[in-house]
Amino acid sequence: MGIGVKAPHLSFVAHALAVAGAVMVLVWTIHFRGGLAWDSSNKNLIFNLHPVLMLIGFIIIGGEAIMSYKSLPLKKEEKKLVHLVLHAIALILGIIGICAAFKNHNESAIPNLYSLHSWIGIGVIVLYGIQWIYGFLVFFYPGGSPGLRSESLPWHVLFGLFVFILAVGNASLGFLEKLTFLENSGLGKYGAEAILVNFTAIVTILYGAFVIFTVFAQAPQEDDHSYSSL
Amino acid sequence: MGIGVKAPHLSFVAHALAVAGAVMVLVWTIHFRGGLAWDSSNKNLIFNLHPVLMLIGFIIIGGEAIMSYKSLPLKKEEKKLVHLVLHAIALILGIIGICAAFKNHNESAIPNLYSLHSWIGIGVIVLYGIQWIYGFLVFFYPGGSPGLRSESLPWHVLFGLFVFILAVGNASLGFLEKLTFLENSGLGKYGAEAILVNFTAIVTILYGAFVIFTVFAQAPQEDDHSYSSL
Fold first, then answer.
1. Which of A56, B51, B59, B100 has its CA 20 to 30 A from that of A133?
2. What is the CA B230 to chain-centroid distance, rounded?
């Protein structure tokens, strides 16, 4: 038990940051960038699905999945179910969000997979999938032996946090990359849109930080020390 | 004590990644980008000091400072001295590295402090400085009361790791930002230099990951549980 702050209190700050980040990415893509569409002659609208799905779908829901196991006042089996279902939703929305980026690239003749953002993005989604499948098999169904479970748990937490931090960092790379493209095409470096995008990235990073602080904080039920082995 | 791997073993992997990253950033700046200079009519050479000082000076030495406290087989007071001296060197080289970026911008008429990379960079160096001063006052000289020390320690570790992760993430932002500028000016997206810069960023991220794994690994002396309170 690292820090004496209660996990649910920290998770409330994270929820507030999640709402702020979600609103900001929607204002950016809809108000400043023209809206969202899966099919359109305006290929930018296809791209816009990418930050929305990655931030709201993958990172925010993924973060809520992480916090749910620590901060919800439920029984262990119920929390486990919430945890794995939320992570599954995050993973699926993340995959759709990545498909939106490829669809935009392919329909706009933009090269694929040359940037650090794309490389790390593919790495993150693959590691996230592996982590989910391993967690499902060992901790849910069919379930490993008690020895395997207790040996796997700290690795599950550490690897999960590593992938989540990578995802948050990669979101920042994405915001910076897209904004750099726009600024190279004439967007004002100190204009409202640039400031909004930078602050969306900062809110995303703060959300990620509070998700992780929640993991190291005090669980609501004192008999639950599932995460305190780290 | 989270994971059963020994801290010195993990730190060897980190050292190897540090050497690889240092070589890569030097090859990039010297072989591909023309070299390093504090004063030059070729302003790019001034910029080149920035990635070199931030990666080798700030992140690598800062990471070694973090690991030293966990992985060196020394007495607590000796490790503390190594830890704070290495962090001081990292902080000073980081500040010089940031000055190099401003010097290049000012002499090349490039606007300052508009990008996410620059915003986070200023935040990181300020937080790093605050963390160093607080750590010095509470844990070294004049030193806080035993109660204050033991209450501060998990926060010192957590906040320190947070700032270090931010620094590593921000290095990735810097590599991506610079490479995006170069690619917009015609550099090949799949060329040798682009691949080198992306892999330098990935080696930096892996180094950061192994530094953090070291913190959660097993200390060489079993009586030292300074970090196991997390």
1. A56
2. 22
Residue A41: HSE in the Cβ half-sphere, 13 Å Cα cutoff: 0
Helices (H), ranges, B136-227: 146-184, 192-216
Given pLDDT bands bounded at 50, 70 and 90, which one contains residue B4? confident
Residue A211, burial from CB neighbour count under 10 angstroms (0-12, 13-18, 19+): buried
Amino acid letter at B193? Answer: E
Q: Would the CA dihedral through B192, B194, B196, B202 be positive or negative?
A: negative
Nearest chain A alpha carbon to B229: A2
Q: Mind listing the domains of chain B with CATH numbers?
A: 7-216 (1.20.120.1770)
pLDDT tens-digit profile of A177-206?
Answer: 999 999 999 999 999 999 999 999 999 999
3-state secondary structure of A6: strand
Q: Give the one of B194, B202, B229 whose C-beta lies nearest to A2's C-beta.
A: B229
Distances (CA, A) of A182 to A175, A179, B181: 11, 5, 12
Tell me which chain B residues have a C-beta less than 8 angstroms from the C-beta of A205: 120, 166, 169
